[in-house]
Structure formats: structure tokens, C-alpha cells
Amino acid sequence: MADALTDPEDAKLVTLARSSRARAQAAEGAAVRDGDGRTYTAATVSLPSLSLSALQAAVAAAVASGAQALEAAAVVTESSTVDGIDAVRDLNTSAPVILAGPDGVVRSIIDH
């Protein structure tokens, strides 16, 4: 059974991740929220010379913008696993990572 999101800011992350995935027509979309409440989104990057999961790309965007901590993250994918969770853990070892399907339904919340 999927975990329910009670925080509207977490639900917003799922919506932003879905939008990024759809806009880029990518395998994954991700969104992260930094310690100041700013959000950053990204989609899977798959180039001959560079491959990043959507989550890695979103974390990279946050760090490149000066974020020093993350509060939460969301990944929208058809997969049952999350790639790039270590990038989130580099900035916060306990930030929840929400895994949702393309329909936005939360499948799980990984909190450690």
C-alpha cells in the first residue's frame, strides 16, 4: 500500500516531478526542496558523454544554485527503484525521498 502525503509541500514536489518528466518526455522526473524552501526540478539526462538520473540532476541544480541542505525529494518513474538517492543523502541523511508512479500515486517514501 502506498504512503499518503499529508504535507502539501511534498505533494507539490510530486506534481513538479511529474511536470518535468512530461515536459522532457523522459524516463524520470524529479524535484527537490532545499533548506530555504526553494524547489529545483530535472529530468533524466542521457547523453553519450553524460548520464544522470533525474534525482541526481535535480540535486545538481540545487547545489549549483547554492543549496547546502535538502528537506525532501520526489521522483516520478515507472521503475520500482530510485537511482541517485546517494546525492540526496550527501546533503541530508534523513530527507524523505518520495517515489511516485507516472500517475502521481505515491508508491513509497524512503526516509533513510
How would you briefly describe this protein structure?
The protein has three helices and seven strands, in the order αββββαβαββ. It is α+β, with helices and mostly antiparallel strands and 112 residues long.
Characterization of the model:
By secondary structure, the chain is of the alpha+beta class. The chain contains three helices and seven strands; from the N terminus they run αββββαβαββ. The chain has a five-stranded mixed β-sheet. A two-stranded antiparallel ribbon has the order 3-4. The relative contact order is 0.21.
Number of strands: 7
Terminal-residue CA separation: 19 Å
Strand order of the largest sheet: 2-1-5-6-7
Low-confidence runs: none
How do the helices and strands follow one another from N- to C-terminus?
HEEEEHEHEE
Mean pLDDT: 94
As a whole number of angstroms, the C-alpha radius of gyration is 12 Å
Query: Largest sheet, described in full?
Result: 5 strands, mixed
Proportion in β-strands: 25-35%
Set out the fold topology.
Layout: H1 8-24, E1 28-34, E2 39-43, E3 45-47, E4 50-52, H2 54-64, E5 70-77, H3 85-89, E6 97-100, E7 106-110
Parallel strand pairs: 5-6
Antiparallel strand pairs: 1-2, 1-5, 3-4, 6-7
Keywords summarizing the entry:
112 residues, two-stranded antiparallel ribbon, alpha+beta, single chain, 5-stranded mixed beta sheet, 31% strand, 7 strands, 3 helices
